[in-house]
Design brief:
Blueprint lengths: L25 H16 L4 E3 L9 E4 L9 E21 L2 E19 L5 E6 L1 H14 L10 H13 L2 H9 L5
Antiparallel strand pairs: 1-2, 2-3, 3-4, 4-5
The structure holds zinc ion.
Length: about 180
């Protein structure tokens, strides 16, 4: 297993639209395993393949408190949704920034597993939010795109003022997705 390097904003490679996956082979399995390892080591809740410079439609996540329920979704699509919910988000590719945005409250997810079998499920809460955040990565979209440039600038200034120790402490307690 190998820990992968995570691309960080404003890296343009995070803005690519990822390709659908058609081949379910050992290489894909290896990538998903390495992405899970990377996600756990970085204390993230989810990770999308383009974040590790692989522009393909693959996401991994683990929303359990015990960090023992890894999930892998290939070619994930939100096929229906309902409700709106406020979500406080951070991202492994956008260090230090955390902000409230709006997401769909409940969603229906259609995807494939790592073998290519069809999966269909309903999600709410953090599970729903995490899926939406990761699918955005596949479309070259980041959670900070939902806030205004002025608000983003304000957040970045605030962060610049904080000392490094505070930042590290804060990051430890934040769920990064
Ligand atoms: Zn993210």
């Amino acid at each position: 297993m190998e820990k992968l390097q995570i691309l960080e904003f404003p890296d343009k490679r995070l803005r690519r639209v990822s390709e659908a996956i058609t081949v379910f082979d050992q290489k894909l399995k290896r990538l998903s395993t390495n992405m899970l390892l990377t996600m756990y080591e970085e204390r993230g809740v989810g990770l999308a393949a383009p974040q590790v410079n692989q522009p393909i439609r693959l996401i991994v996540m683990d929303i359990s408190e015990e960090r023992d329920q890894p999930m892998v979704f290939v070619n994930p699509v939100v096929s229906s949704y309902a409700g709106r919910v406020e979500s406080n988000e951070g991202c492994l590719s956008v260090p230090d920034i955390k902000t409230d945005i709006k997401r769909h409250e409940t969603i229906k997810l259609d995807a494939q597993d790592i073998e290519g079998n069809a999966i269909s499920l309903e999600a709410d809460g953090l599970f729903s939010i995490c899926i939406q955040h990761e699918i955005d990565h596949l479309d070259g979209k980041l959670f900070i795109d939902y806030i205004s440039d002025i608000k983003l600038q304000r957040l970045r200034k605030k962060i610049a003022k904080q000392n490094k120790a505070e930042r590290i402490e804060k990051q430890k307690s934040t769920r990064l997705i």
